[in-house]
Amino acid sequence: MKILRAPLLMIGLLMCAQGFAATAQQNKMTTCNADATAKSLKGDERKTFMSTCLKAAPAANDDGKVLTPQQQKMKTCNADAATKALKGDERKVFMSDCLKKK
């Protein structure tokens, strides 16, 4: 009986951990919601934006490869840092904050 406890406990923990992992759709919802909030959209405008955003294909890079949410986040933050002409430590701090926010 004691031999079965550890394997059963491990199986239970693995099954629980899978329930906490965010799916691609949940990540997309989070990103679209953040974009809608940043644009201060309300009511029907927000509904339309969210619908379009959630239906949109995943972002691709110049090679046509689909980017992961983390890669897309990095691309966006990098573009923002370049627009602000940040260099050195300022850029590192900005990138760190940007990647944590989204």
TrEMBL record:
Keywords: Signal. It comes from the Bacteria. InterPro entries: P_starv_induced_PsiF. Residues 1-21 form the signal peptide. This is Phosphate starvation-inducible protein PsiF. It comes from Pseudomonas fluorescens.
